[in-house]
Design goal:
Layout lengths: L1 H17 L2 E6 L2 E6 L1 H9 L2 E7 L4 E4 L1 H7 L4 E2 L4 H7 L5 H12 L5 E6 L5 E11 L5 E10 L1 H16 L2 E6 L4 E6 L2 H7 L2 H4 L3 H12 L2 H11 L1 H8 L4 E10 L2 E11 L9 E7 L1 H13 L9 H10 L4 E8 L2 H8 L1 H17 L6 E6 L2 E7 L3 H22 L6 E8 L5 H15 L7 E3 L2 H22 L3 E9 L6 E11 L5 E2 L1 H11 L2 H21 L7 E5 L1 H4 L4 H12 L8 E4 H6 L3 H10 L4 E6 L6 H6 L4 E4 L1 H4 L5 H16 L3 E5 L4 H9 L4 E3 L7 E2 H7 L1
Parallel strand pairs: 17-18, 20-22, 22-23, 23-24, 24-25, 25-26, 26-27
Antiparallel strand pairs: 1-2, 3-4, 3-8, 4-5, 6-7, 7-8, 9-10, 9-13, 11-12, 12-13, 14-16, 14-17, 15-16, 19-20, 19-28, 20-21
Helix pairs in contact: 9-10, 14-15, 15-16, 20-22
Bound molecules: ligand C2E and magnesium ion (2 copies).
Length: about 700
Amino acid sequence: MLFLLVATVSVLRSFMKTKDLETFVFNGKNYSLLSRTFQDAFFSLGLLTFRYYPEEKTMIISDKFAETYQVAKVYPNMPYSFAGAVIAEEERQSFYELIEKLEKGEKKVSNTFESVSGDCFRVTIVPCEWNNERKPIVALGFVENIEKQNRSEKLFMALAKDYGSIYYIDVEKGVLFPYRISDDIKREYGEAIRENSNYEHLINCYIDKTVIDAEKDEMRKICSYKFIEECFKEKDIILHDYRGIRDGKTIYCRLKIAKLQNSEKFSDFMIAFSDTTKAKIFEVERLAYVDPVTEGNNYNYFKKQLSETNKPGYFVSMDIHQFKIVNQICGVKVGDRVLKEIWNTIVENLKEQDFAARVNADHFVVFAPTSPREEIESKVGKVTSDLSELSKKMRWPRLHPYFGIAKWVPGQNIEEVYSYTTFAKHSVKDEKNVNFQFYSVEESDKVIEQKKMEDNFYDAISGNCFEIWYQPKVSPVCGRIVGAEALVRWRREDGMLVPPGMFIPVFERDGLIRILDEYIFDRVCHFIKARTKKNLPVLPVSVNLSRASICYEGIVEQYDKIVQDVGINPKYVPIEITETAAVSNSDIKEISNEFCRRGFVLCMDDFGTGYSSISLLNSLPFANIKLDKSLIDTIGEEKGLKSIKHIIALSKDLGMTITAEGVEHESQKNSLMDLKCDNIQGFFYSPPVPEKEFVNLL
Ligand code: C2E
Ligand code: MG
Ligand code: MG
């Protein structure tokens, strides 16, 4: 621009000499203006002209000026008249100041203004005649529309923040002017950019040297004039991300090409480059470590943090009881919101060095270094009450969390510790009062063992690993075997025998017991059948029916079908149901009646262990009652013997026979015999024995 001005001023000088001025009279005074030819010449340079007469406070503007801005030609009462007509209100003051400076004798004044119609232009005024006091009497003014320059300045400002290298491309000359060159580019290309400013040459050099091979062609296309020209027909900005190699490493870069003029014609543009590697890494990290639902940390973040932690502490995992209800009732969208609020609640309860994450679904984890156990407990309590408050306030289904907690020491396997917390958490699930559990190794070993059992169950059934042992029931009066109880054992691969107490409770929990009970029942039926077939003496062998098996629909029909299929009389396979099952199952009356109706004999097992109910004895059709070992063990005590006496008497009154279990000593046998106990099952006579041995006893 400065060059333009210098040129203009020299044109002006020569023109002054030629006196090629148009003069006209205004208010009786002669004023002059540049001739139309000169006005056109300046206009083609992007300049509009005017003359200013400071003494008269009058401005005469060129015809081109008046046409361009659609304003009057002559302005007396300067600077107010011109400012009022042409310059935007908020900028008028600085125009007055400009004129004031000129009148005070400055050699050149210049400033940019916005016009009333919103254009941006620069006014430059140069005095060209002076009075004796060296005060200007005539000045020549130029107005240049600086939209183009302004836009590039604005663009530069906009680019400056994010782009390391910015260049101005003069399309006509095919040259590139650097506005700014990044340190990396300077280091790599040195002065080359300034020495040879040919745009196409430079851009090709850059592409060859920096852009990765796979993206070179694409980049060449995007930087070509042809492509840019095409794009500029539709948009002002071209953005392109590409990868390069710098110092042997992949870098991520962004290219921005911006149009400078709003014209149809393809003209100069700016091109800027930025190294977005850091941002890219940041973004990749963000995506890798942020949970999309809570916008907090995800489990990857948690693991990363934990692996970098050098302090021991507590690893806590948390679930919400029945969270699926929230989704079912409120919908998934609200469900997500709830999860976010749960996350916020957790975060509010974190101490400075704690960190947390959402793993998935409603599973969250927290790590609290070096907190004492009590602190963790109170933290867990606080989160519980906060969540309860929250759900109340929001009218959501109650958010009841439960926690599993394990100790963590630096260097430990994270997934392993996480599995400990999950394990501890699951052992909470059933408990109503406490909602957290610390992990213990013994507990865990037990569960692992149980899991193994569950996994091996079907193989064990098909591999005949469940053995039936028989424990004789003996009449104490004559000492003869009158029956037996079938008791299951599990023969492990290594030959070890596992007692039922180790696996029955496990299978009762997961429902496999129904299959096992039925299997034992079926085998005992076949045992009876085999003996009948061989015309050997047959005695009833009772089988146990777990309280978990009773709950299954059609159990009676199923057992009935088995005896029918095998072809034996159900009286040979009495069914032992524990007293507790009888007390707790409301359908027991119906089921037991149905068993009896089909000819089965029922024994009430383990009488005396649970909430012994004599009235139950009355209302249910049990033919036999088995006194539990714990009762038998009280025989030595006065009160014990008395109560056994009453139970036996009452049972007999109700028409039941009595079997005493767990009789180990002769004295016990004698006492029971005195009380007219019908049968005795206990180590005193025989422990449970394998089938072969039992058969020999008969
Ligand atoms: P239960 O039905 O009350 O069986 C009697 C248990 O007392 C047997 O233990 C037996 O070995 C033990 N016992 C008998 N006499 C004595 C004695 O004099 N001293 C001592 N210390 N113990 C004696 P076992 O075989 O370990 O069975 C334990 C429980 O496992 C059984 O108690 C029964 O509830 C359950 N069970 C066994 N087999 C099955 C089955 O096939 N199905 C179901 N559902 N439960 C079974
Ligand atoms: Mg039993
Ligand atoms: Mg028993």
